[in-house]
Amino acid sequence: MFELNFMQNAFMAGFIVSILCPFIGLFIVLRRNSMIGDTLSHSSFAGVAIGLVIGINPLLTAFIFTSFCAIIIEFLRSYYKKYSELVMSIVLTLSLGIAIILISSGKAATKVDSFLFGSILTVTKSDILLISSIGLICIILLILIYNKLIYVTFDEDGAKTNGINVKLINYIFTLLVGATISLSIRIMGVLVVSSIIVVPVATAMQLKKGFNKTLLFAILFGFLDVILGLILSYYINSAPGGTIALTSVITLILILVLKSGLKKH
């Protein structure tokens, strides 16, 4: 299995995704903003459709369009401060409208399935280069704004009082969410990409550790879910996105069962 080029590509892409998604996911969960994952995953689908129609690498157009939608979300939030879910619905409607129009035109329909459900067969060397370079930039940016992002996440008003540019941090974070999702769709697929962002975090939170340890455990669970999901999808010939999503949920259930068993003893 590991001697096959397409599996090597899939594991390299999966490794980057498994680190980046839970890293971003912990902040999304703590902000109680899980809806942004689904919204931007559908935005990435519109970006993929644009790439397929005009003949450009779909991951690149997905990254550009998802980043654009992330900026729109953050911009509209200032107009709908008490109704953030309304902003998500607006962007979701825009993205789905564009995607449906382009897919129904027939120019992109043939390759859509691999992006909807994920595919280990279609990860190319150019995809790896794009995922690696943008993924590395995202991780570096997260490390650079890490302390400020924690402050903004837990106490936005206090962060403003202490001179932190909250609006800039929120824009950077939202862009990072968009970039992470657009990089993950090749492996995970549009329909379940938010699962690898949220579920490993939910699993790690059951251990009730401190913030930094929870982050490390979330990345560890994300890595295990992605790697096991890719191996299983190879052997049972299934779409990796769904297999990884199921693996992540099974891991969560196992941790919950183990936790309740330890409590009884």
TrEMBL record:
Please state the protein's primary subcellular location: membrane
Note one Pfam family from the annotation. Answer: ABC-3
- Where does this protein reside within or beyond the cell? Cell membrane; Membrane
- Regions that span the bilayer: 12-30, 50-73, 85-108, 128-147, 168-185, 191-207, 214-236, 242-262
Topology with regard to the membrane?
Answer: Multi-pass membrane protein
The record's listing under InterPro entries reads: ABC_BtuC-like, ABC_TroCD
- Give the keywords, sorted: Membrane, Transmembrane, Transmembrane helix, Transport
The source's domain of life comes to: Bacteria
Similarity comment:
Belongs to the ABC-3 integral membrane protein family.
What is the protein name for this chain?
Metal ABC transporter permease
Organism equals Clostridium weizhouense
